[in-house]
Write a structure and sequence with these properties.
The complex is a heterodimer of chains A (113) and B (112). Chain A is mainly β and 113 residues long. Helix content of chain A is 0%, strand content 57%. Classes of the chains: A mainly beta (113), B mainly beta (112).
């Protein structure tokens, strides 16, 4: 069975500090990977997606970056956090192909002070 | 992806059957109808999806109108665990980005 693990579960960070969030998928080779973000009280927005190692496409510009260093790993990061980065970050995976089902992780709650 | 319209909220009582409607009048022929549900501070959970035919699984029954302009997610014997925000989403993946566009969804409350 496939499992998706996100870390950390929650973070409290200062404005201007760096951030790194991680996601690992086990039990599925060459998945498509996605980062989504939800501001408090807002709707989920897709930030990035990746269909293969080393290849990441940006969907929404939020002064964040993403990388896929391994087939089963997806990293979201920034060197300088903004207050507006607060929210709930979700990693998801799907099989390749069109209109495939997305399966989400349990998320990371980020508070920027 | 085409737009969907859902009621803001609905209420049900434990043990009852609830019908969650979704309108998608401008759906394209190659768009799938997906349903996810989400509780606060958890990731969305896949419920079901369909293209033209009604579908059923252990979580729900999805009834799709013959003209595909609307659909209804039917939950039987609802429990407190079914209280969540239910999202009806249309999608067609292109170029490897199986993007889901979430709206506000329907908040389902379940009364004990």
């Amino acid at each position: 069975a496939q499992t998706i693990h996100q870390w950390p579960v929650a973070e409290i960070k200062a404005v201007g500090s760096p951030l790194s969030l991680g996601c690992t998928i086990k039990g599925k080779s060459s998945p498509n990977l996605y980062w989504y973000w939800q501001a408090t009280g807002g709707t989920l927005q897709q930030l990035f997606y990746s269909i293969t190692v080393g290849q990441v496409e940006s969907v929404v510009q939020l002064n964040l970056s993403a990388s896929r260093p391994k087939d089963d790993q997806f990293i979201l990061s920034t060197e300088k956090l903004l207050l507006s980065h607060s929210g709930f970050y979700l990693c998801a995976w799907s099989l390749g192909g069109c209109a495939e089902t997305l399966y989400f992780g349990s998320g990371t709650r980020l508070t920027v002070l | 992806d085409a737009k969907t319209t859902q009621p803001d909220s609905m209420e049900s009582t434990e043990g009852e059957t609830v019908h969650l409607p979704c309108s998608h009048a401008t759906i394209s022929g190659n768009e799938y109808i997906y349903w996810y549900r989400q509780v606060p501070l958890q990731g969305p959970e896949y419920v079901t999806h369909g293209l033209q035919q009604n579908t059923t699984n252990s979580m729900a029954f999805l009834a799709i109108a013959s003209d595909r302009k609307s659909s209804t997610l039917i939950l039987t014997h609802v429990s407190l665990r079914d209280a969540a925000v239910y999202h009806c989403i249309l999608r067609v993946g292109t170029g490897g980005n199986n993007k889901l566009t979430f709206g506000q969804g329907t908040v389902l409350s379940v009364i004990p």
